Amino acid sequence: MTSSQTESPTPTERIPLLGSTSAEMRRSGPLANLPPYRARQVAHWLYARGETDFARMTDLPQPLREEFADRYSLSPDPVADLQKAANGEADKYLFRLPDGRLIESVLIRTPDRVTFCISSQAGCAYGCDFCATARMGPGRNLTVREIVSQVMALRRALVGEGREPVHNIVFMGMGEPLQNVENVIASLRLLQDPEGLGIGWRRITVSTVGLIPQILRLAESDVSARLAYSLSATTDEVRDALMPVNRKYPFREVFEALAAYQRRTRMPVTLEYVLLDGVNDADDDARRLGGFARDLGCKINLITYNPHPASPYRPTPPERVQRFLRLVEPLAPAVTLRQSKGQDILAACGQLSTRWREPAPGAEPRS
Ligand code: SF4
């Protein structure tokens, strides 16, 4: 187990291995007294082949399989609900954590790629005004096991579809990943480890509302990931109202941290911009946004809004989205437009669990 995880077994419980690298697996239980290749065998079965039953790890001697099954657990978190968009573009998973809390992950299909949108926290303290997860209030950080378990479950769901197991992973589900920065870093290490899930860092994006110390922490860590900054406003006045974190970390100061991140990774960050009708979609917003991207040398990802039932905001109409795009494009190095997927299954983060939710211990709903 990593020191940053919060699940610690009592002496009578089985030791959870999912979420540990093969080196970490050797720190406790029978694997501590066995040659390192035994832990590597278990890690290969678990992460490369998705096997969670020791009985089927056929290159381990039978007595070891039985001893490991007695002492270790490989269990992913169970699926509490699954909804599939009618057009096949998105599947939304609701997982039940060991303490009863619920988190969401979304599998998004486009013709050329599959994206896993995963959660990093159960709930969120940041109170962004347009976000369904914000209504849950502060929850808790997910452990490395709970983060990686989502990826493994979604990857398993793709078996049989004849597609590569994973194309892209985005930390854009419930929660602010950088508030859980140590477990997110440990998860990135395991996702990228050739003896773990072996996913290239360029395929993994961490999306943040702009926590400056943690952006710098990630930049200095031993792992890499693409970084996306959820901006969604071009003035402090509008961003203060939409995303209260702007009062602590004003976006112009965040830009300096993003520039440092780009220097460290040599990868352009992305400015994410959710278009809200009449709030942040004026011509001047488009020109300012394009100017920010030009000055930073970074990309822009425009996102159409997927409103949740209690939201006061509406999506920008399609003709205005196109006008906004035309104004931004000449200024920014690169612009993409992402249409929200799976409206019929409430695919934006937090929407399924807030509808479904049972009271979770310690969680104080705001509304
Ligand atoms: S947008 Fe992200 S940071 Fe903001 S409230 Fe929602 S989950 Fe939290």
TrEMBL record:
<dbReference type="GO" id="GO:0000049">
    <property type="term" value="F:tRNA binding"/>
</dbReference>
<keyword id="KW-0004">4Fe-4S</keyword>
<dbReference type="InterPro" id="IPR027492">
    <property type="entry name" value="RNA_MTrfase_RlmN"/>
</dbReference>
<keyword id="KW-1015">Disulfide bond</keyword>
<comment type="similarity">
    <text>Belongs to the radical SAM superfamily. RlmN family.</text>
</comment>
<feature type="domain" description="Radical SAM core">
    <location>
        <begin position="110"/>
        <end position="344"/>
    </location>
</feature>
<feature type="binding site">
    <location>
        <begin position="175"/>
        <end position="176"/>
    </location>
    <ligand>
        <name>S-adenosyl-L-methionine</name>
    </ligand>
</feature>
<feature type="binding site">
    <location>
        <position position="207"/>
    </location>
    <ligand>
        <name>S-adenosyl-L-methionine</name>
    </ligand>
</feature>
<feature type="binding site">
    <location>
        <position position="131"/>
    </location>
    <ligand>
        <name>[4Fe-4S] cluster</name>
    </ligand>
</feature>
<keyword id="KW-0963">Cytoplasm</keyword>
<dbReference type="GO" id="GO:0005737">
    <property type="term" value="C:cytoplasm"/>
</dbReference>
<dbReference type="InterPro" id="IPR013785">
    <property type="entry name" value="Aldolase_TIM"/>
</dbReference>
<dbReference type="Pfam" id="PF21016">
    <property type="entry name" value="RlmN_N"/>
</dbReference>
<dbReference type="GO" id="GO:0070040">
    <property type="term" value="F:rRNA (adenine(2503)-C2-)-methyltransferase activity"/>
</dbReference>
<keyword id="KW-0698">rRNA processing</keyword>
<keyword id="KW-0808">Transferase</keyword>
<keyword id="KW-0411">Iron-sulfur</keyword>
<keyword id="KW-0489">Methyltransferase</keyword>
<feature type="binding site">
    <location>
        <position position="124"/>
    </location>
    <ligand>
        <name>[4Fe-4S] cluster</name>
    </ligand>
</feature>
<feature type="active site" description="S-methylcysteine intermediate">
    <location>
        <position position="349"/>
    </location>
</feature>
<comment type="function">
    <text>Specifically methylates position 2 of adenine 2503 in 23S rRNA and position 2 of adenine 37 in tRNAs.</text>
</comment>
<dbReference type="InterPro" id="IPR040072">
    <property type="entry name" value="Methyltransferase_A"/>
</dbReference>
<keyword id="KW-0819">tRNA processing</keyword>
<dbReference type="Pfam" id="PF04055">
    <property type="entry name" value="Radical_SAM"/>
</dbReference>
<dbReference type="GO" id="GO:0030488">
    <property type="term" value="P:tRNA methylation"/>
</dbReference>
<protein>
    <recommendedName>
        <fullName>Probable dual-specificity RNA methyltransferase RlmN</fullName>
        <ecNumber>2.1.1.192</ecNumber>
    </recommendedName>
</protein>
<feature type="binding site">
    <location>
        <position position="128"/>
    </location>
    <ligand>
        <name>[4Fe-4S] cluster</name>
    </ligand>
</feature>
<keyword id="KW-0479">Metal-binding</keyword>
<dbReference type="GO" id="GO:0019843">
    <property type="term" value="F:rRNA binding"/>
</dbReference>
<dbReference type="InterPro" id="IPR007197">
    <property type="entry name" value="rSAM"/>
</dbReference>
<dbReference type="GO" id="GO:0046872">
    <property type="term" value="F:metal ion binding"/>
</dbReference>
<feature type="active site" description="Proton acceptor">
    <location>
        <position position="104"/>
    </location>
</feature>
<feature type="region of interest" description="Disordered">
    <location>
        <begin position="1"/>
        <end position="32"/>
    </location>
</feature>
<dbReference type="InterPro" id="IPR004383">
    <property type="entry name" value="rRNA_lsu_MTrfase_RlmN/Cfr"/>
</dbReference>
<feature type="binding site">
    <location>
        <position position="306"/>
    </location>
    <ligand>
        <name>S-adenosyl-L-methionine</name>
    </ligand>
</feature>
<dbReference type="InterPro" id="IPR048641">
    <property type="entry name" value="RlmN_N"/>
</dbReference>
<dbReference type="GO" id="GO:0002935">
    <property type="term" value="F:tRNA (adenine(37)-C2)-methyltransferase activity"/>
</dbReference>
<feature type="compositionally biased region" description="Low complexity">
    <location>
        <begin position="1"/>
        <end position="13"/>
    </location>
</feature>
<keyword id="KW-0949">S-adenosyl-L-methionine</keyword>
<dbReference type="GO" id="GO:0070475">
    <property type="term" value="P:rRNA base methylation"/>
</dbReference>
<dbReference type="GO" id="GO:0051539">
    <property type="term" value="F:4 iron, 4 sulfur cluster binding"/>
</dbReference>
<dbReference type="InterPro" id="IPR058240">
    <property type="entry name" value="rSAM_sf"/>
</dbReference>
